[in-house]
Design goal:
5 helices, Indigoidine synthase fold, globular, about 130 residues, alpha/beta
Length: about 130
Amino acid sequence: MVALESNVIAHGLSFPENIITAKKVEEVVRTGGSVPATIGIDNGRILIGMTDENIERFATTPDIPKVNSRDLSVILAKGGMGAIPALLLLWWQQSLQISYFRIGRYRRCAPGRGKEHGYLLGFDSVYSI
């Protein structure tokens, strides 16, 4: 299983590039023989392995907070949504028994959602703990 952050869907790219990219990354993981597990929070529940519907909701809902360890319990208790960044994946990885996780690498390109300058994601950063 390869953990994938949902932060890049909610904050990294504009619609529809965020959905297209998320699905491409999941397909690359499947092609490599692993199971993708895009992780996010919706309705106060941690989602491990987001569905296409979850990904579309994250891609189109404005102002989803980027969750860190400080505000995780608040998001869960209030039944909210939250985008999971790479550092939180690293924190959870061993307890979830996920061997690998992927983070995006940013380089300047076309502007993303609400951004003056854009970034290009490279998905070659896969880590094993």
